[in-house]
Amino acid sequence: MAGRETTLTSALVRLVDTLVVEYDPVDLTQDLVETSIELLDADAAGLLLTDGRGELQVLASTSEETRLLELLQVQAAAGPCLQTFRTGEQVRIADLDSVAEQWPAFTDRARQQGYRSMCALPMRLRNDRIGTLNLFSRRVGALDDEQLRIAQALADFATIGILHARVLADSLTVNEELNHALNSRVIIEQAKGMLAERGNLSMDIAFQRLRGFARDNNRRLADLARAVVDRTITVDAIVPDSQPDDTANRTM
Asked: Rounded distance, CA 29 to CA 21, Å?
């Protein structure tokens, strides 16, 4: 127990750091999904955030496979993550086979990726719902009650972080900020694709290189991605010619 509490404290300190200087919702939510699988019995995580029209978009994920699984739900307008967002209630599925008839497309894709259980947690503050944090496991049996409390606490923390601007600004400004974060994610996906193509890398590795370069050079991830897309920074600066062949790990 003490070890887990220490890890949780360290994780929260890291998340707080993202709010102190150059606050970036994209970086905050990426830290959140990575922290979730570090702390909990989950193998993958994704985060959906609502845009100015009230529609969910994928903002963060721990892998390309998870991102596509989240996109599938958004495009089909069906799945546990969509249900959590609509109701504001947690969806806890100990065995995905039990919801195969309810969400066939989602469960088929999830099982193809090896997932057997999942939890979807609302990102909400009072009556405001802005998205969902979604955790996937490769074994039957969703998170236990203690871990579910931790997961919800992380989701709540991120929600407060994203909406903290409401203390100083009106809801229109906040919606603009959230839309900017979602638009930034589109640019990041484009930059990932360019790095993956240039370095013959999987999309996951390309994202790690992009994010690592941003942190090493004290740059906002979205700003660096835009520079890559605009070609104001060369792809070779991030992915040198000497990168090893990663074709075997490429995500289809």
From this structure: 15
The predicted model scores a pTM of 0.70
Q: Which of 156, 18, 208 is nearest to 239 (CA)?
A: 208
Taking only the tens place, the pLDDT of each residue in 153-190 is 889 888 887 776 444 445 545 556 566 667 787 888 89
Q: Is 210 helix (H, G, I), strand (E, B) or coil?
A: helix
Mapping DSSP to helix (H, G, I), strand (E, B) and coil, where does residue 41 land? Answer: coil
Give the orientation angle of helix 171-199 with respect to helix 203-216, to 10 degrees: 110
Query: Tokens 């150059």 identify what position?
Result: 22
pLDDT at 224 over 80: yes
- What would the two tokens of residue 30 be? 């990426």
For residue 133, what pLDDT is reported?
Answer: 96
Provide the CB-side half-sphere exposure for 147 (13 A, CA): 18
| C-alpha span between 105 and 238 (Å, rounded) | 37
Report CA dihedral (11, 15, 21, 26) to the nearest 10 degrees.
130
Phi and psi (nearest 5°) for 58?
-80, 120
Mean pLDDT for all residues in the chain? 82
Token representation of residue 168: 């100083």
DSSP 65-95: HHHHHHHHHHHHT-SHHHHHHHH-S-EEES-
Phi, psi of 40 (to 5 degrees): -115, 170
- Shortest CA distance to 39 belongs to which of 116, 139, 143? 143
What are the phi and psi torsion angles at 23 (to 5°)?
-55, 130
Beta strands in 117-173 (DSSP E): 117-125, 128-137
Task: Calculate the CA 160 to chain-centre distance.
Answer: 16
Cβ neighbours of residue 14 under 8 Å, at least 6 residues apart? 31, 35
